[in-house]
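As a warm-up, study this chain.
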Amino acid sequence: MESEMRSIGEMARDSGLSVSAGPRVQIIVPSPLADAMRALLSDDASVQLTVDGDRVALETGDRQAAGQCLDHDFPDYRRLVRLPAGRRALVDVPAFREMVETGPVRASEVREQDGVPCDLSVLKVAADGVVTVCEDGDDDQDHIAVNREFLLHALAAGARDQLILEFGAPTAPLAIRRTDTEDTFSILMPVRLEN
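Now compare it with the structure written out below.
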């Protein structure tokens, strides 16, 4: 079951509402409940969010969305965004996108959720900072393999002609950052290559 990782406060702020909060509480709710709560948010209505044990309710006017919290620990995303020191490479997005779209791919292991492999792009950074897609058989341990589709989505989400790719260890996330802010970025988890 998918769950919503954004807080209700974040959803309210994204909708332009002011937020006054009590003590900090972290909960995870099923996506359909988060969607129902999001649908109740509007510019001109006050909202009350109540968390009572394993139940959560959002009320606005005479409308309410309520349900069970999921019994999971809140994920610690901070470990993912504090990346180890690594190499940064400035890429020209249109040229890099073309290289990824037309470059060699490798098949991942078969995924449990859908029984099919995905296409992987294996990336390397040269000493001069140039990022390239590795040919099949170029199996250096310092290369990082990522889901090609996710990489293309992250490049599109960056919405810039130039982005910074930040490489840590081969098992650390790949960060894709904008050049104008450190606070806006995507991260891609690497995929282990079978040797």
